[in-house]
Write a structure and sequence with these properties.
This protein has 571 residues and is an alpha+beta fold. The chain contains 20 helices and 20 strands. The radius of gyration is 32 Å and the shape is globular. It binds one RNA strand of 76 nucleotides through helix 1, strand 1, strand 2, strand 3 and strand 6.
RNA sequence: GACUAAGUAGCUCAGCAGGUAGAGCACAUCCCUUUUAAGGAUGGGGUCCUGGGUUCGAAUCCCAGCUUAGUCACCA
């Protein structure tokens, strides 16, 4: 156990004093809560006969003690409300312990309390709760970062990203907009779920542990099943499983899937992320575009009451219909090159002419994608369906009804980022097998993201899958756009972090077991010795002087340390 | 993975022509019966990220490492 800071020690002392006073700092019984802070602030000013017998609980976020009366800001799940605590009100008898000792001295910012009382307005005009009784519900042993705010100006914000993500609980306590973001995230997901369910589509769950990681081009995580003694992969997509279910006869299936990809991490990529995929029988990608437009405008309306949303400095209009443009048209628009009829070599030359880096492993599909990614993507600010991708890029997608070199695929771009990807799904089993084999060829060429052949999936298609349209949408990205957050870490409650480094520390017990006398352990730590190895390696003369020097400086009531004693500890 | 920047009190940050470590909030003690980021007075609190080097002397200069952020590369 690392040494406690002074403030932590003071809180632990307060905890013990509470116990001595017969107050349980962590009571088991429920505390009745019959009102939310937000409803009081909303309704009381309109009708001040309301809320005259209330009971509310929350966390102390600030205190202003003015002698025999005090003001506390109490934060519950819905906001903050001021408490007015008057000594003679909560301590009507002679015994003023609850106010003078418990409230003023033993409670701190961060503690959780419950109060009963009535609502009134202070002389300063703030709706407040006049407290009549106070109950300690949970003592907080660590000081919270103190964030203050006045007229929208935030003082001393708790803003260090590492601390915010590692200690998300603290972030949520002191940064209300963070709590709000995750409420919005849930609203987005619920809106989508309602939209799908209303149309009779079925929410399903498919395997995360897969023996063939299919449905996307990405590097998977590998894990091992002991009983079967086989390697399994964490899914990179659930597409092939959902299509099996369409073969099985459902009208539509969807899943909010956690996918895992063993690739880089940055502000738009987390190793695990959520992708919603939906497959609907007897539809095509044109139908799906309209379906997506309606879904997004509904989400925007639910969240913001309008389809126009501010995202990263741009005003994005999620009210459809969105622009629909074939990929090769957009490339021609941006670069003047018509890549549609080009072969692989011509594409390489074009990339060179456009100053786009390529390598030997790239096939036609990846080359075109490179040009598109470089020259077109960043310009697609308002929602745009990019359609009709080259066949090499889309091994699971049906050939275009008018051009066999293209596929019936669209990606939806918003603010220069890909938000959704959809197909008229390939349901020709022979074509599908051929496309898998082409992927195998790419893989042998060195493309480590090429897809594996999933023979069971091909077998499923051989039984017959209806014409189907499928769509996948990155939920994290969607949430980022709908909440105007710049970083995926701000829309994931617990983003992946490197493990917290832990300094090796020797416990007090270990020091004592080693022979160090207990009263000297804190002094040793003060002298900078926190591990047994540091003790053994220290200079005995310097340490001897330091320890007795600290004893004197801190006026410790114990006999001076003898040199022989110290040498025994250091042995 | 590459480059750039940062790491000082519980939190937010100053300090750097090398010379005893600072502020605000928080915390402690005392005073104060309605305050609005901030009532008054006094006080305690630091492995200046870690390890080396230069130096009489390093938070400050140099090197290496760790962590974080940003940009780039791969990817959704």
């Amino acid at each position: 156990m690392a040494e406690l800071t002074e403030q932590e020690q003071i809180r632990r002392n307060s905890l013990n004093e509470l116990k001595k006073l017969g107050i349980n700092p962590y009571p088991a019984a429920l505390y009745e809560v019959n009102v939310k802070s937000s409803e009081i602030l909303e309704n009381y000013p309109k009708d001040n006969t309301l809320y005259q017998h209330i009971s509310i609980a929350g966390r102390i976020m600030s205190r202003r003690i003015m002698g025999a009366a005090s003001f506390v800001e109490l934060q519950d799940a819905y906001g903050r409300i001021q408490l007015y605590i008057k000594r003679d009100e909560i301590c009507p008898d002679e015994d003023k312990t609850l106010y003078n000792t418990v409230f003023k001295r033993l409670l701190d910012i961060g503690d959780i309390i419950g109060v009963t009382g009535y609502v009134f307005v202070t002389q300063m005009g703030e709706t407040s709760i006049h407290v009549q009784s106070l109950t300690v519900l949970s003592k907080s042993l660590r000081p919270l970062p103190i964030v203050k705010e006045k007229d929208g100006h935030v003082y001393d914000a708790f803003s260090d990203p590492e601390q915010r993500y590692r200690m998300r609980y603290v972030d949520l306590i002191v940064n209300p907009h963070v709590r709000e973001t995750f409420i919005k995230r849930a609203k987005i997901v619920n809106t989508m779920r309602d939209y799908f369910n209303e149309q009779g589509y079925l929410e399903v769950e498919t395997p995360i542990l897969q023996s063939i990681p299919g449905g996307a081009a990405a590097r998977p995580f590998i894990t091992h099943h002991n009983a079967l003694d086989i390697d399994l992969y964490l899914r990179i997509a659930n597409e092939l499983y959902l299509k099996r279910l369409i073969v099985g006869g459902y009208a539509g299936v969807y899943e909010f899937a956690r996918d895992f990809r063993n690739e880089g991490m940055d502000r738009t990529h987390n190793p695990e992320f959520t992708c919603m995929e939906i497959y609907v029988a007897y539809k095509d990608y044109n139908w799906m575009m309209t379906f997506v437009e309606n879904m997004l405008s509904r989400i925007a309306m639910t969240l913001h009451g309008t389809t126009k949303v501010k995202v990263w400095g741009n005003e994005i209009d999620f009210g459809g219909p969105f622009r629909r443009a074939p990929m090769c048209d957009l490339i021609k628009e941006a670069t003047g090159y018509d890549v549609l009829p080009m072969d692989e070599q011509q594409l390489r030359d074009t990339c060179k002419a456009l100053n786009i880096e390529v390598d030997e492993t790239m096939g036609k599909g990846k080359l075109i994608d490179a040009i598109f990614g470089e020259k077109c993507e960043p310009n697609l600010i308002q929602p745009t369906f990019v359609t009709d991708y080259p066949i090499e890029m889309s091994p699971l997608c049906k050939r275009h009804r008018n051009n066999p070199n293209l596929t019936e695929r669209f990606e939806l771009f918003v603010n220069g980022k890909e938000l959704a990807n959809a197909y008229s799904e390939l349901n020709d089993p022979i074509d599908q097998l051929g496309r898998f084999q082409e992927q195998l060829r790419l893989s042998e060429k060195g493309d480590d993201e090429a897809m594996f052949i999933d023979m069971d999936f091909v077998r499923a298609l051989e039984f017959g899958m209806p014409p189907t349209s499928g769509m996948g949408m990155g939920i994290d990205r969607l949430v980022m756009m709908m909440t105007d957050e710049q970083s995926i870490q701000d829309v994931l409650l617990f983003p992946q972090m490197k493990p917290e480094k832990k300094a090796p520390v020797t416990t007090d017990e270990e020091f004592v077991n080693h022979g160090v006398s207990a009263e000297w352990v804190p002094v040793l730590r003060k002298a900078g010795i926190n591990t047994l190895s540091a003790l053994k390696e220290a200079n005995p003369n310097k340490l001897y002087n330091d320890l007795n020097g600290l004893r004197k400086k801190n006026k410790l009531e114990m006999p001076p340390l003898k040199k022989e004693e110290l040498e025994k500890w250091m042995a």
